[in-house]
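hey can u check if this looks right to u? its 94 residues, i copy pasted from the old doc so theres a chance i mangled smth
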Amino acid sequence: MPPALQWLKWLVMTLTLSLIGGVITVVWLLVTRLPMPGAHPVAPASLDMPAGATPSAVTLGTGWVAVVTTDKRILIFGADGKFWQEIAIKPPAN
């Protein structure tokens, strides 16, 4: 075999091994990094929203739910839907 062809053979084998190693690495990372089923936050069936509060955004955490209302408040609820805390959103002073 000519030396140039021998070099090409080794190059193709090296690239093939690196591709196989990369695929194995990606699969391993997906298996180890993706969350397990049931490990994500669960929304309660209902929330005890105060009268007149209109939600505009909801965030789920482990054991709590935060609701941003249209009247510039953040309402924190427990995982059971019971009201915990209210935080007023104040714009910065100019």
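Residues 1-34 form one domain.
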